[in-house]
Design a protein that fits this description.
By secondary structure, the chain is an alpha+beta fold. It is built from six helices and 15 strands. The strands form four sheets. A four-stranded antiparallel β-sheet has the order 1-2-3-4. A four-stranded antiparallel β-sheet has the order 8-9-10-11, with helices on one face. Strands 14-13-12-15 form a four-stranded mixed β-sheet. The radius of gyration is 29 Å and the shape is flat.
Length: 362
């Protein structure tokens, strides 16, 4: 089955806007430089020279926008019969065998001054040399779809190779029992929220007390009056913090208890989540948060959504793991450490039973 991945309309428009902003800034810089050189050389700037410089500005900006639009619209990736064909500037640049050239796509968050930016790179080997193609013109959903499509081909290809070699393909690779530990994860997650809340409150209290004692000398006659009012205000602050946290934790506990399973059993023809059984004949598709998705918030979850013929079932499988070492409190208690194994098992189970598998998340 042929699949084509190219820039979506919204992404295309956003890239053109980015090219426009960059080109205008560069054009303005160029115009300022030309004006400065012209003034130094002639000692004056005439109306005619200003008109010519403005023409140069608009021509530069226009060509930059057109060039950016053509550059991105001419890129696409085609998957067909185990081949990945990469087009650039409307012509074929690479024709790669997904398995032989060891093609894989990697999405990694990169920290910048403005926050996190998701880098997308397609890696492959050609003549023993590792190369890469930047795929920032593809959306995260397209990259997830491309990754699953390549994994499906590799799985089916390995299965066919085993049959050709007279070997029996091990369908037990898709099977296994996975202990998620819903109750333990609920208690640990609530514990983490309390720890963070208490650290935050005591941090504010410590800073406030330090500031009060720093102004002790300046307001010595009124010190105890200031301290008295501060304690009253801080008391209301504590109530204002802890009451919402308690309410939030109540609903968080109910949600996690409802959707976090104790165990998941994957068999050749069905999947069992606690006491609920899903036969391959009843499942239309399964969605799972991709393995490499990383944490941007304490409350981002890994999820598995099973779409049956009758209804949709959602399961929470712990927090997303932290990408940076800035969040040591989250691991390992609120992160399900065997998620990668479960993800691979569910994905291969879908491939084996011809069920649609969708990878989600940034």
């Amino acid at each position: 089955m042929k699949k084509i991945y190219k820039t979506k309309l919204f992404t295309h428009i956003w890239l053109i806007i980015q090219y426009f902003i960059v080109s205008v800034m560069l054009s303005m810089l160029s115009v300022s430089l030309i004006l400065f050189i012209f003034k130094v050389a002639t000692g004056r700037v005439t109306d005619t020279s200003l008109i010519e410089i403005n023409k140069l500005f608009f021509i530069t900006a226009t060509f930059s926008i057109i060039g950016g639009a053509v550059y991105n619209s001419g890129k696409k990736i085609v998957l067909e019969n185990g081949l990945l064909i990469y087009h650039s500037f409307f012509k074929e640049k690479y024709r790669l065998d997904i398995k032989k050239n060891k093609v894989y796509l990697e999405m990694k968050p990169k920290k910048t001054r403005k926050g996190y930016y998701l880098k997308r790179n397609l890696y492959f080997k050609e003549n023993g040399i590792k190369k890469n193609i930047k795929c920032n013109w593809l959306s995260a959903d397209q990259c997830n779809g491309l990754t699953v499509a390549m994994e499906k081909y590799k799985y089916i290809s390995s299965k066919n190779d085993d049959f050709k070699n007279g070997e029996i393909f091990d369908t037990e690779k898709t099977s296994g029992k996975f202990f998620v530990g819903g109750q333990k994860m609920v208690s640990q997650r609530i514990k983490k929220v309390w720890i963070i809340t208490i650290i935050f409150v005591f941090g504010i209290l410590a800073v406030s007390l330090i500031m009060i004692f720093m102004i002790f000398e300046a307001f010595r006659p009124y010190f105890f009056l200031i301290l008295y009012f501060f304690l009253i205000i801080f008391g209301y602050f504590i109530i204002g913090i802890f009451v919402p946290v308690i309410v939030f934790l109540f609903f968080l506990k109910k949600r996690i208890e409802k959707y976090t399973p104790e165990y998941i059993i994957v068999k050749s023809k069905d999947i069992s989540v606690d006491n609920t059984n899903f036969s391959k004949y009843d499942v239309n598709r399964i969605e799972m948060t991709r393995k490499e998705a990383t944490l941007y918030s304490l409350f981002n979850d890994r999820k598995m959504i099973i779409h049956s013929k009758e209804e949709k079932y959602m399961f929470i499988l712990g927090n997303l793991p932290p990408y940076l070492k800035e969040f040591p409190l989250l691991r390992p208690s609120t992160v399900y450490e065997d998620y990668d194994l479960l993800y691979d098992s569910i994905m291969k189970w879908c491939f084996e039973n011809n069920i649609e598998f969708i990878s989600t998340g940034r």
